[in-house]
Structures are given as C-alpha cells and as structure tokens.
Amino acid sequence: MAWVLSVKPTYSIELQENLFKGNIIFSHKNIKNISQLQFRDTPDLIIIDAINNDFELIKITKNALTIRFLLQQTTPPDFIAIINSEYNHKKQLFDIGITDYISCPFISKEINYRIMHILHSNEKTNNTHQSNESLPEQINNNRDSMDSQLILIEKCIKHLNGAISEDVRLETLCRILGTNRNKLNQVFKDHLGMTVFEWLRKQRMHKAAELLETSSLNIVQIAEKVGYMDSNNFSTAFKRIYHNCPSQFRKQFKSSMQS
C-alpha cells in the first residue's frame, strides 16, 4: 500500500491506472490533515504532492510522519515526491530525506521503474534486518507530547498563511492558539529549525517573490500585500532572502523569461 499525500484525490487514481506491475494500492490522504491519519497499517511507500503544496508543509509532513512511525517502533517507509517540469526545489527535497520523485503528467514507464525499484530495495533490506532495536522508553512516553506539538505547528501555520498581509503580534497569536510564546517558538525551532517570526518572514518573502513574478503590482503594493507598511523595511528583508532588491529581482525574472 502507498499513501498519496495531496489535496488532489485524482493523483491516487491516476497512479493506480499507470502502475501495471505489482499489487500496490494507492490510498489518497489529505496532506493538510496528517494529525488525523490512522496508523493501523504501515504503508510501503509515501508519495507527497510537491506541486500543490509549499516546501515548508512538505518538510513538516515528512518530519511528523517519520516521528510517528518511530514512536510506534516501525521503520518509516520511503518518501517520494510528485513534481512537474517547472519544479525548482529538487535539491531541497533530497536534503530533507525525500528518496526520489515522479513527474506529472504521469508516465507509466517512469512510475513502474521508480516505484518498483524502491519497493524491491526495501524488500531486500527487510530480509536482512528482521528486527529493530526498541526506542528508548522516554521517547514512547513522549508520544502524546509529540502529537500535540505537531498539531500546534499545523494550527499556527494555517493561521499565519491567512494573515500574511496582517500585523501579526506574538501575544495575540499565542492567545488564539492557546499557548505561550516560549513554547511556540521552541516547538518551531525543534521541528523547523527557526522561530515563528523567522518562518513567517520567509513565507512573506516567498509570497512577495511570487507577486513580483506574476503581477503588475508596484513594490509598495507588494510590500503591503505581505505585511510591510514600510517599503524600505520590505526591501531589506527581501534582500536577505533573495540577495537582490525587489526591483532587481523582477528585472532579472523578466529578462530570463525573454531569453
């Protein structure tokens, strides 16, 4: 069995139709509801939709599921991603432990080669490693704590994604989430390697880059769209991420599209 984590249920159907070797069943799971997944059966493979989900969500999902499997003393399955020809973050996917990728639109030959290769490799590994060492008892005791941390991150990210243009206050955010600033920042650092506002700043800059590429809004308007009332502060924050001021970024993008 393979889980297909996506907001598009059609992917699991298309994969099933294109896989003409093996007896694997593709089961659709909503990537935005991973905290509600049932772990009665361990999948042989997890396929994550990288086209319709941002990289941070993919990273959170991968880390969260890996932890859940380990807490059950189960070896985590391999993760592969669904990408398309325009996807530019393959290296980042491999950096977080994604094993391979398949391209969309799906090609039967590619799907059969990549998926069956991974499954056959896993069978060989399992035959030579029949037993897993038990995890330390303290990790098992932290199962509920870990689940609550991941749910907190999901709720926080969902709220922040809807408040990109707003003046977000940490105290207000904590009150909405029913937590405190120290716990919230620590959970983000533990699982994402950054504080809440570092994460929000990156998301705002990614959104700004998208608007610079796809809209005719001027710099001041884009700054306001991503929560900056001062365009100078926005330009400074943007340059930290993209190493170019917004106007130069847009100019380079247009130039690359024309060449």
List the helices and strands and how they pair.
Layout: E1 2-5, H1 10-18, E2 26-29, E3 45-49, H2 55-71, E4 78-83, H3 90-95, E5 100-103, H4 108-128, H5 137-141, H6 143-161, H7 170-177, H8 181-192, H9 196-214, H10 219-225, H11 231-242, H12 246-258
Parallel strand pairs: 1-2, 1-3, 3-4, 4-5
Notes on the protein architecture:
The chain has 259 residues and is an alpha/beta fold. It has helices spanning 10-18, 55-71, 90-95, 108-128, 137-141, 143-161, 170-177, 181-192, 196-214, 219-225, 231-242, 246-258, and strands at residues 2-5, 26-29, 45-49, 78-83, 100-103. Helix 3 (90-95) links the parallel strand 4 (78-83) and strand 5.
The DSSP helix count reads 12
Approximate strand percentage: 5-15%
Structural class: alpha/beta
Average residue-wise pLDDT = 82
Please give the radius of gyration in angstroms: 21 Å
Q: Extract low-pLDDT stretches.
A: 128-141
Amount of helix? 55-70%
Number of strands: 5
Shape: globular
Please write the string of helix (H) and strand (E) elements.
EHEEHEHEHHHHHHHHH
Question: What is the first-to-last residue Cα distance?
Answer: 45 Å
Instruction: Report the biggest beta sheet as strand number plus sense, adding barrel if it closes.
Output: 5 strands, parallel
Question: Can you list the strand order of the major beta sheet?
Answer: 2-1-3-4-5
